[in-house]
Amino acid sequence: MTQQSIKKIARNALIVLIMTGLIAYVIYHCLQYFKDPVQVTAAVRQSEPMTRELTAYVFRDEQVLASGHGGALQELYEDGDHVAIDSEVARVYVSENGMELYEKLEKTDEEIAFIEQCLEAADRHASELIDLNETISRKHGEVMEAMSRADGERVRVLSDELLLLLSQRQVMTGELTDLPVRLAALKAERDELRRAYGDTYESITVDRSGYYYRETDGYEGIFSNEAARLLTLEGFDELIRSVPRATEKDAGKLIGDFVWYAAIPMSYRDAQMLTEGYVYSLTWEDGTVVDMELDRMLSDPQADRCVLVMKTGHMPQGFSFARVQTVSFAVGQTSGLRVPENALLTGKDGEMGVYILDVARVCYRSVEVIWHGDGYVLVRESDRTEEGHERDLGYQELIITRTDEELYDGKLLY
Q: Residues 285-292: contacts with CB within 8 Å, 24+ apart?
């Protein structure tokens, strides 16, 4: 290749490089010309629930289960369990070693049940040993898998099952032969414990069916269903000032009626958005949602005060029924124009506003926030024909949500 050819190739390469840069420059500036300098969103109408967080007082028909003695209480049912008439629901230990005897008796019962299950394997045929070994191997794998997931409760249950299987194999192979003797000794020990244990506690039984709850607060019989049905504003004030009775000898309480009430004080203004006879969904402080009917409204308009009397026949499983709780529910709806939170501006005088795009001109609009949401707000929609509201945000106006430009009222963007 001659020197002249090399120079020609270099000159052509340089020309291509210059032309490429020129084209890139032109394309960049064309894109910048057509690029929208702002991002906008229309001010649309939207409605949201008006939620109030209030204090609720629980009213129920509650029969206190009293003990004749003070002492340690052993519940035989979980809170909210339904119990039949004449059921023993709890035991109150009247001697210091009563609970200790009960724990020994419970442990002895567990050991007896375990040995009896082990001895069931003595009647199995030798051919079943192969199946038993396969079950043991599978159960061991389940234990290891539960351990890898750090599932402590699952590991405990599976380990107990594995221990039983291993013991049954020892019975089948003749490695464990003294179980009948141990079983007889444990049964004799249990009989002795039962005789001693029988004199250490007071049995708490119910004379009707209902729902058992352990905790009492001393307001049983005060915050009753009858009190809720006859409630007045003055009576409500007296109730919440009432002094609870002593509960030292209480062994729980029985709820015979699944209907219960809640009295909820609130402002008279907010109460006007509610309707007697309607059902509202109340979210209680533990997250439980209960549908309750608005039975009555006790109102004092001059004091801007009202007490709602709510009623329901629903008893949620696991619900605490604590006497005083926080509840929240929607008392109505609020409507306005939706505005992204990042578009809001605050002036020196505290006035809120936004910039909107009117064709190519930036314009300032005043807003009044009436509701806060997640990343957006609702602002009041004004009648812009009224004096003093001409510069308020209007329906479908284009709110500027993002721009690299420095904005001010009247600026031309195009």
A: 285/325, 285/326, 285/327, 286/319, 286/320, 288/316, 288/318, 288/319, 290/314, 290/316, 290/319, 292/262
Largest CA distance in the chain: 122
How far does the chain reach from its first CA to its final CA, in angstroms? Answer: 56
Q: How far apart are CA 274 and CA 166, in angstroms?
A: 66
Per-residue model confidence as pLDDT tens for the chain (414 residues): 565 665 566 566 666 566 666 665 555 444 444 455 688 999 999 988 888 999 999 999 999 998 877 677 878 898 889 999 999 998 887 766 666 777 787 888 888 888 888 888 777 776 677 778 888 888 888 888 888 888 888 888 888 888 888 888 887 887 878 888 888 888 888 888 777 766 667 889 999 999 999 889 999 999 999 999 999 999 999 999 999 988 888 889 999 888 999 999 999 999 999 999 999 999 999 999 999 999 999 999 999 999 999 999 998 888 889 999 999 998 888 899 999 999 999 877 888 999 999 988 999 999 999 888 889 999 999 888 888 888 899 999 999 998 778 888 888 887
Are the C-beta atoms of residues 278 and 293 closer than 8 Å to each other? yes
Tokens in use for 23? 């084209």
Q: For residue 118, what are the CA distances in angstroms to 19, 253, 403?
A: 92, 41, 78
Cβ pair 376, 339 in contact under 8 A? yes
Q: Are 356 and 400 in contact (CB under 8 A)?
A: yes
Contacts of 359 (CB under 8 A, 6+ apart): none
CA 306 to chain centre: 28
Q: Could you give the angle at the alpha carbon of 31 between the alpha carbons of 25 and 34, nearest 5°?
A: 145
Handedness of CA 216, 218, 219, 224 (dihedral sign): positive
What is the token pair recorded at 227?
């009190």
Find the radius of gyration of the CA atoms of the chain: 38
For residue 319, give both structure tokens: 């619900």
- Within 8 A by CB and 6+ apart from 109, the residues are 190
Which amino acid, residue 206? V
Place of tokens 């306005």: 336
Partners of 45 in the β-ladder: 337
How far apart CA 166 and CA 151 sit, in angstroms, is 22
- Which amino acid is residue 231, in one-letter code? L
Say how many CA atoms lie within 13 Å of 270 toward its Cβ. 17
